């Protein structure tokens, strides 16, 4: 009886230890050693602690300890095919942001967000989200140079602003490839993103509504300053970041201006100093990473394709996401949106997860009702096992009808049918677009 009780006690103890934590895998122990950081392994995730205990921060005059909101981190977990996924949030001084960003980008990691958590803090603190995937040790090696810069970046310096823009504005316009306007001491160039077929409640969101990229210049020919905003599709974020940093222009923020947009649009704010022509060249390098300035499909603006299903949350989403991935990979001038006759509140989480795992990111997409303006402005309208409502009917426009399996019949069957039709549609569009 005593042996049985002892065995039961040991079994319960083992279960308790397993519930509290997991043994550290050797590859994760090596990551902590490489980074010279502490961390723990729970729920199949390695969490590496990167606290900014070197900072003495006050928020609106109140002294705040490091755990109050200044404990940075990175985390790793195993993904498909033995690949590791790394995500993290680094706590940075203002002067550290761009040196750390360059170190991350130069070593093959991604920066996915940059923002603040506080108002009225001293010193100013920014938060940079990082992402990467690959071998655990390789990710640690790529991350280490960026971490080494934290606490060592030199302070930024300031210079007096020029009273008027004392530079050749025509030369800047020629470099950028777009004309601008002078307003007092500032010369501003604005480039709309008409290539992105963005609508809200049926209304077209254009440059005047804020869907644009711009650059403002001030100062002199040899000592100018630039500031602005870049509107980007998701696939353009990392190329734009790299272009700006390689040209010595500081990135200030990365965020969204709209929620539920389809496709998602991101905005990047930047700042730089130097000769006016050099700054214009740096801005042009970033602009060239976006669809309009790259001259997608021989300088033709991107034309919208509209997929419509009953609820705008499954079949049309699957079709639009696959269409956009294939069109973008081939640098074709079409982009698709998903619409619904009676739209659901949101795209099902399990479908979002499945599409994301397949490299089809629909994060931020929100089912929207089909409107006549969608139909009127589209090059092609395709209905998937539904009919357009009378409110969206446009004289002379006859939508193509795709009869495809219901998602309730199984995702593989629906995906196979829709993907095959999407591929045929792209071939048809290319054939009809030839001169």
Overall description:
The protein is an alpha+beta fold. It has helices at residues 2-20, 26-35, 97-106, 136-148, 169-176, 237-246, 276-287, 291-294, 296-299, 315-329, 349-357, 372-377, 411-433, and strands at residues 39-42, 45-51, 57-59, 62-64, 71-78, 84-93, 110-115, 121-122, 125-134, 180-183, 186-192, 199-200, 203-204, 212-219, 224-233, 250-255, 265-274, 303-309, 334-340, 380-384, 400-402.
A few lines on this structure:
The chain is built from 13 helices and 21 strands. It has helices spanning 2-20, 26-35, 97-106, 136-148, 169-176, 237-246, 276-287, 291-294, 296-299, 315-329, 349-357, 372-377, 411-433; strands spanning 39-42, 45-51, 57-59, 62-64, 71-78, 84-93, 110-115, 121-122, 125-134, 180-183, 186-192, 199-200, 203-204, 212-219, 224-233, 250-255, 265-274, 303-309, 334-340, 380-384, 400-402.
State the main characteristics.
alpha+beta, Alpha-Beta Plaits, Rossmann fold, 3 domains, six-stranded antiparallel β-sheet, 21 strands
Write the layout of secondary structure elements.
Elements: H1 2-20, H2 26-35, E1 39-42, E2 45-51, E3 57-59, E4 62-64, E5 71-78, E6 84-93, H3 97-106, E7 110-115, E8 121-122, E9 125-134, H4 136-148, H5 169-176, E10 180-183, E11 186-192, E12 199-200, E13 203-204, E14 212-219, E15 224-233, H6 237-246, E16 250-255, E17 265-274, H7 276-287, H8 291-294, H9 296-299, E18 303-309, H10 315-329, E19 334-340, H11 349-357, H12 372-377, E20 380-384, E21 400-402, H13 411-433
Parallel strand pairs: 18-19, 18-20, 20-21
Antiparallel strand pairs: 1-2, 2-5, 3-4, 3-8, 5-6, 6-9, 7-9, 10-11, 11-14, 12-13, 14-15, 15-17, 16-17
